[in-house]
Amino acid sequence: MIALLLALGSSLAYGCADFLGGLGARKAHVLRTMMVAAPASLAVELLLWPLLGASFDPAALGWGAASGVASAAAFALLYKTLAIGPMNVLSPMTALVSAALPVAVGLFQGEHLGVAGLLGLPLALVAVVLVSAGHGAGSARPSRTALLLACGAGAAIALQLVCLHQAPADSGVAPLVVGRAVSSVVTLTAAGLLRRRLGPERPAYAVSAAAGVLDSLANVLFLLAARGGDLTVVAVVTALYPAGTLLLARGVLAERIHRGQFVGLGTAALAVGLLALT
């Protein structure tokens, strides 16, 4: 139950971070947004180090570094995807892709679910599909480029989560600190190499930093949830994060939500209830 609540908290934080990151990427080049978001995330994880501890053994360093490379790719692809829009279609599609790989890894590693879990897990996947089931009248149709970026972002997010899960359970926040340090270096290096293509626009500093902080908190909650529960359940519940993005996009940007997406939100609530019983 605690793992499920942590996963729900991670989902909410991811959804808010994605919304803010997408807004930031609309103000300036996505790398400029990342140059603010990634260091802000690292600062949060360094502050959590004394509270949660950290053990920098070789396994934590290796899996943390791998998650950092995946995180940098996820940041770039996701923020670019959400900047293109529409958020209410592309964010759920990213989540659907990001749920598939962790679930497969968890089942392959021998995780088992009870009866309620066997019902709740497929329902949760159906909920993600429903939430991403197209667009209502008046909504913009996503381009092929945006759809490809969304799939790439989902794959990168999945790799990041799997790498964090594979890190030793007693390593504390070491994988997160290493991963964020690596992603920050990758981001700054890419920005330096492409500085002539970044344009003159300044990033939205407050929005970008808030996105980074929320993404870091989401990672911490996911790591704690994955260490206390099954990856198959935690990953799917975390993948419901587009619910937060959808509602924020509706309230702030006035993006329309398709009727099927509302059904998906209700299905997600039922699925989480069943998973809580597993």
Task: Offer a quick outline of the entry.
This protein has helices at 2-27, 30-52, 58-84, 87-108, 115-131, 144-166, 174-193, 205-228, 231-238, 242-253, 259-276.
Structure description:
The N and C termini lie close together (9 Å). The longest helix has 27 residues, at 58-84. The protein is mainly alpha-helical and 278 residues long. The protein is globular, with a radius of gyration of 18 Å. The chain is built from 11 helices and no strands. Helix 2 (30-52) packs antiparallel against helix 3 (58-84). 79% of the residues lie in helices and 0% in strands.
- The low-confidence parts are none
Oligomeric state of the chains? single chain
Distance between the termini: 9 Å
Tell me the radius of gyration. 18 Å
Gross geometry: globular
Kindly state the percentage of residues in helix.
Answer: over 70%
**Total count of strands:** 0
The class by helix and strand makeup works out as: mainly alpha
Summarize the main sheet.
Answer: none
- Could you spell the SSE succession in H and E letters? HHHHHHHHHHH
Total helix count? 11
Average of pLDDT: 80
Strand content: under 5%
Q: Which helices and strands, and how do they pair?
A:
Blueprint: H1 2-27, H2 30-52, H3 58-84, H4 87-108, H5 115-131, H6 144-166, H7 174-193, H8 205-228, H9 231-238, H10 242-253, H11 259-276
Helix pairs in contact: 1-2, 1-3, 1-8, 1-9, 1-10, 2-3, 2-7, 2-8, 3-4, 3-6, 3-7, 4-5, 4-6, 4-9, 4-10, 5-9, 5-11, 8-9
